[in-house]
Amino acid sequence: MDAPGHRSRAGRTRVEIRELECFLVLAEELHFGRAGERLYVSQSRVSQLLRSLESRIGARLVERTSRSVALTPLGERFLRGLRPAYEELGRVVDQARTEARCVSGTLRLGFLGSANRRTTAALGLFHARYPQVETSVAEITMADPFGPLRRGEVDMGVVLLPVDEPDLVLGPRFERQPWTLAVSSAHPLAARAALDAEELARCPLIGSDEPAPAYWRDCQAPPVTPSGRPVPAGPRVRTLQEGLAMAAARRGGMLLCRPTAEAHAQAGVTFVPVHGLPPSELGLVWAKGAETALLRAFAAAVEDVAEEGPVTAAV
Prior knowledge:
Blueprint: H1 17-29, H2 32-39, H3 43-57, E1 62-64, E2 69-71, H4 73-101, E3 106-112, H5 117-129, E4 134-140, H6 147-150, E5 156-160, E6 168-177, E7 179-184, E8 195-196, E9 205-208, H7 214-220, E10 233-237, H8 240-248, E11 254-257, H9 258-263, E12 269-275, E13 280-287, H10 293-306
Parallel strand pairs: 3-4, 3-5, 8-12, 9-10
Antiparallel strand pairs: 1-2, 5-13, 6-13, 7-11, 7-12
Helix pairs in contact: 1-2, 1-3, 1-4, 2-3, 5-10
GO cellular component, one term: protein-DNA complex
InterPro entries: LysR_HTH_N, LysR_subst-bd, WH-like_DNA-bd_sf, WH_DNA-bd_sf
Protein name: LysR family transcriptional regulator
């Protein structure tokens, strides 16, 4: 409840919950000393809280003499109305506390490109711990990595870093992997055993389309090499499969982490290791203010799986 003196939109003075608790206990004990013991406060503090409550109401609720404590007629009526309302408030708080501690419901998980082994291993561990929870998975497109979270289509997402979104929370980070360049098997670079990042200036890079933010798209298809040489821009695509199709058609090269390259080996596309770029990394993301016991439990499963050692990543 509001601080002393605050008023609701209807103009009614609100009271402190501690004042109501004090009145209820005092009404049961009819003794300021015993009421203070139950509330773990001094007898003078009980008197102070009562005076504050009576001031808000505008009348005496308790009559006190040197020998006795009794409720006034208004105090009796106030008690009859307050007690069930206070008990109901307690039930509401207890229910919220139970729900917050209980891992139940449905978890909707989004993943970028493909469900990697880390994600599926975390899902398996999570199910073993909480078999009562239903889970569903959905693909997050390269062109809109954060949109499904904002639209409420998924509860959590496994996406490539970086994540610099003020309305989203970045949880566990995992799966640092080197990059490879996907190119047509007929491309001159396909015959190379490995590439230096500076050589990306020789190949248009296939990148993500909008509405993916520019900083995120630039990480997947950097506009310059580490030394600052311009990298030609290739087609923009919405999905991983679209990007691989463009690479096979010799429209450019596409940077993918090594495990994703291994998982999507196909005729007509060659994956060449690239040295000199910071490794790719995945992170678990959810909407700010939406954290629940369910989400915390899955984040813990991801962290526990991540500690077991390297497994394959997504895009």
